[in-house]
Amino acid sequence: MSPLDSAWLAAHPLPAIGQETDKNARGRMLCAGGSLTVPGALALTGEAALRAGAGKALLAVPEPARLGLGIAMPEAAVFPLPTNDEGELAGKAGERIAALLDRCDSLVLGPGMGERSAAATILRHILAEARADLPILLDAAVIAGARGCADAVRARDGRVVLTPHPGEMIALMECDAAELRDAPEELVRRASTHFGAVVVLKQAETWIAAPDGELLHYRGGGPGLATAGSGDVLAGILGGLLARGASPCLAAAWAVWLHGEAGRFVAEESGPIGFLARELPPRIPSLLAAFGTR
Predict the structure, then answer these.
(1) Which of 1, 203, 233, 285 is in the most buried spot, having the most CB atoms within 10 Å?
(2) Cβ-contact 175, 161 below 8 angstroms
(3) CA 237/CA 235 separation, integer angstroms
(4) CA 126: distance to chain centroid?
């Protein structure tokens, strides 16, 4: 186990971005998710990806939310997805998302999706259709869908990242709360082995496990990060770094640290709790600049 701190990050830099690069070379992240209940979730994810250095953000959301999201985030390209009677993504959304995959360098699937979405159906379609080298992050309701797709996730050879919070981890691994409480490091390692994926267990202290045995521990950015939308921001940072060409484990580590340290900075200015998730992304560029990695 290694502590995720500035020394680890200095020894494991992100891919450099040259002065002559263009926005396509910096990477294109596609994020698909949202619902009519939380149509703005993808705005947080998209901004975080761009703040982390991705060149483009493509956002796919329930069709009725498309215009509002496009106005809220003019930097992004926004695509409509079919919804069910609950205002969540319908199963046919998987086909629409798959049709966009050729234009992206990473896929973030799940922010803003709820339990009444067709998450499992969408995920199965994506895992079957996405090109083999595409890094994929699974978040929110899609994590539960991964439980029945373990073979397909493993077949992607370590290019999948799962980001469960404690409740999602318990459901994913079909364990009890005591196991999570008493040995989170063993549980996250077991999940990584079972799915052949990088697993980020999001709680007060975050654990990251990779299929090659790497285990990282981040002590946390403070209680203020336990707020609505915080996970959407983390997903965007991670997806943006994947789009830039960082490996899944490297992207997960940097994203967890950037998210946590952004929380620390905001808390120092406004107090330990009560700040909003939208206040986190603007802190990311200066944190990257401190390491000479923009």
Answers:
(1) 233
(2) no
(3) 6
(4) 16
Sequence letter at residue 294: R
Structure tokens at 124: 């199965």
CB atoms within 10 A of CB 25: 14
Q: What is the pLDDT of residues 211-226, one digit of tens each?
A: 999 999 999 899 999 9
pLDDT tens, position by position, 24-37? 889 999 999 999 99
For 29-41, letters b (16+ CB in 10 Å) and e give bbbbbbbbebbbb
Beta bridge partner(s), residue 61: 80
b/e 82-111 (16+ beta carbons within 10 angstroms → b): ebbeebbbbbbbbebbbebbeebbbbbbbb
Question: 201 near 176, Cβ under 8 Å?
Answer: no
Whether the full predicted model's pTM is greater than 0.85, yes or no, is yes
